[in-house]
Amino acid sequence: MAAAFSCPVFFPSTFSYNGNRYHGRIKIKINATSSTKVKTLNEIAGAGKGSSSLATSTEINHLSQEQIRQRIPTKKQLVDPYRQGLIIERGVGYRQTVVVRSYEVGPYKTATLESLLNLFQETALNHVWMSGLLSNGFGATHGMVRNNLIWVVSRMQVQVDHYPIWGEVLEIDTWVGASGKNGMRRDWLIRSQATGITYARATSTWVMMNEKTRRLSKMPEEVRDEISPWFIDKRAINEDVPEKIVKLDDNARYVNSDLKPKRSDLDMNHHVNNVKYVRWMLEVIDKALPSIYINSLKFHINLKIITTSFFLQTIPDKFLESHQLSGIVLEYRRECGSSDRVQSLCQPDEDETLTNGVEQSLLKNMVLTPRIMEGNGYLGPLDVKSYGYTHLLQIKGDSKNEEIVRGRTRWRKTLSTLPYSS
């Protein structure tokens, strides 16, 4: 009886394009028995002609250097070994396994809010990548590129129950569904691979914009035909009636008018990335903190200077250790470019006056925000379980201001222990 065996064989591969040489290797797995006739390399290469999935020299001549380097699939892929991704949900959803890296966490070794938002964006793009529909745009399909269309997010909601820790292995699921006649919904779930517990969930609504005119566009039928087979009737967040976000004005408690986009803030669609918007929204209150302390002394002459210094040094740590950002809702109104001047406004849900001492007012109304983006989103009042803030980013114009995004944030006391699945 012949013995069976399996042996992987690697062959070096080199080809030239536009004067540049590209190197790689080809892996061939040989399954055979001891009685199998061994063929020469030339015979093996000849047998593969016409049936090999590798690009021929003719196909390579039609590829750009960018396409060669990116290796964008032209057909649906079920597994992506490079990104640790695979297709799920009966062939239309996507799951990616990621490890929380050191540059994605803050001082408490927990993932930052900014890192979670970036993971949402990355997995969404990788989902389109695996579908075989990705063209050369920022998540745009072939039909979208032919119609000069790009995706823009119109609304996003994130709920965070627990923040992942450094080195933790996560599974991120994402899928898409219909949103009205011309929109698309995309949802996400983040859970711990070790415990199976869901840490965060998010939902978003996307519409199309003409890349040249920068105006919103209806969804062409050819694009609908591309993406509709991927739609799932499933929601990560059940929201019967979307929360209405009121528009703030110049009377908002916290205002920062010193914001200017940098080139590094722009994405591949040449507008400010939505993650940057969140950072601007959360940074506004920090610039107001010194004036809050100083002005409060005018109403409390008996308050010792040393007491104020104590609060300046210890309140931030207490906030960070005891509270966390638990939810955010964003409503996008227009895009922001590199030449725009941006103003950030923020208003607490309760605006209590200083009547019972500066300690009570500061603990209820003051927020330290940049640290949110730098570690775990910890923040909030020390004496209440939940607290909310309304936000607005707007472009400062000579005659009028134009809204960029409205937002709502919720904060709550940090859970002392992390539950484990039974």
UniProtKB/TrEMBL annotation:
**Mainly localized where?**
plastid
Show the GO cellular component annotation of the record. Answer: chloroplast
* Oxidoreductase is among the record's keywords: no
One annotated GO molecular function is: fatty acyl-[ACP] hydrolase activity
Q: What is its EC number?
A: 3.1.2.-
Q: Which UniProt keywords apply?
A: Chloroplast, Fatty acid biosynthesis, Fatty acid metabolism, Hydrolase, Lipid biosynthesis, Lipid metabolism, Plastid, Transit peptide
According to its UniProt record, this protein's enzyme class is hydrolase
Q: Which domain of life is it from?
A: Eukaryota
Ranges for domain Acyl-ACP thioesterase N-terminal hotdog come to 93-227
Localization per Swiss-Prot or TrEMBL: Plastid, Chloroplast
- Pfam families per UniProt: Acyl-ACP_TE (PF01643), Acyl-ACP_TE_C (PF20791)
Ranges for the Acyl-ACP thioesterase-like C-terminal domain?
Answer: 253-289, 309-353
Q: What role is this protein assigned?
A: Plays an essential role in chain termination during de novo fatty acid synthesis.
Q: Name the family.
A: Belongs to the acyl-ACP thioesterase family.
Write the protein's name.
Acyl-[acyl-carrier-protein] hydrolase
Q: Which organism is it from?
A: Gossypium hirsutum
